[in-house]
Write a structure and sequence with these properties.
Helix 3 packs across helix 4 and helix 4 crosses helix 5. By secondary structure, the chain is α/β, with parallel strands linked by helices. It is flat and about 60 Å long. It starts with 19 loop residues before the first helix and ends with a strand. The protein has two domains: 47 residues, no CATH class; 132 residues, 2-Layer Sandwich (Zincin-like), CATH 3.30.2010.10. It has six helices and eight strands, in the order ααββββαβββαααβ. The strands form two sheets. A four-stranded mixed sheet has the order 1-2-4-3.
């Protein structure tokens, strides 16, 4: 149950879909409670101005939502106040420091997201590389403006911190896409054939990625990610 998509039922390939209604019915009490919580969050998020700071971070990649609280800090005369983020139990974030500077608060949240991506998405990339027998070079995490990820001809893979906002299936698609670029550096038929070997649904997911920028919340303040020429093999 997510703020944006509501109830989402994910089933493995080959699952008998005739069993889904009975499973959903058994889970109805939980679904109804989760729907109420999602509606409340949706109302709060939809009322937010894109220039305002977020009250919730929905990290679909991790299947988790983090609440965000803002606490001002006092600094002595002449002291420089640094805006930072710390975690609390129960998936709560506290932004503290100079809260009068919204740009500094957003930057602090981006830094936290980058740390989270390094400890979650980067290990996932390593797992996929091992499972699919790819060899890669160094990995970086950045807030790229127009690319979800990229791979240089030296096999250096750069991941966008915004991947945290995407559903897991699309994140895995992006990661496999870049791993295939370590073998085929362009988008030739040979590349798509290789990617299809490792991700049979790659064409469907490629189309879904055209609208994936909608998962990125307005407060992030970046334009939509889109295709374009690059000196690196990259996925828009």
């Amino acid at each position: 149950m997510t703020v944006r998509d509501g109830l989402v039922v994910v089933v493995p390939r080959g699952f008998d879909q005739r069993e889904i209604p009975a499973i959903v019915e058994r889970k109805r009490p939980w679904i109804e409670r989760a729907a109420v919580r999602a509606d409340a969050r949706r109302a709060r998020v939809s009322a937010e101005d894109p220039t305002e700071l977020p009250a919730v971070l929905e990290l679909r990649c991790l299947g988790a939502e983090w609440g965000v609280e803002y606490l001002p800090s006092r600094a002595g005369p002449g002291a420089t106040m640094r805006t930072a983020v710390r975690e609390r139990p129960g998936r709560q974030l506290v932004v503290h420091g100079g809260l009068g500077d919204a740009a500094a608060c957003r930057a602090a949240l981006r830094r936290w997201l980058a740390r989270k991506a390094r400890t979650t998405i980067v290990p996932r990339l390593a797992v996929l590389a091992h499972e699919h027998a790819f060899t890669m070079g160094p990995i970086s995490v950045r807030a790229q403006r127009t690319r979800w990820a990229s791979c240089s001809r030296r096999r250096v893979i750069s991941l966008n911190v915004k991947l945290l906002f995407l559903p897991p299936a699309l994140v895995d698609y992006v990661l496999l896409h870049e791993l295939c670029h370590t073998v085929v550096p362009d988008h030739s038929p040979a590349f798509w054939a290789l990617l299809a070997e490792h991700d049979p649904d790659c064409r469907v997911k490629s189309k879904l990625m055209r609208e994936a920028h909608r998962y990125v919340p307005p407060w992030f303040g970046e334009r939509a990610l889109r295709p374009g020429p690059s000196r690196q093999s990259a996925i828009p």
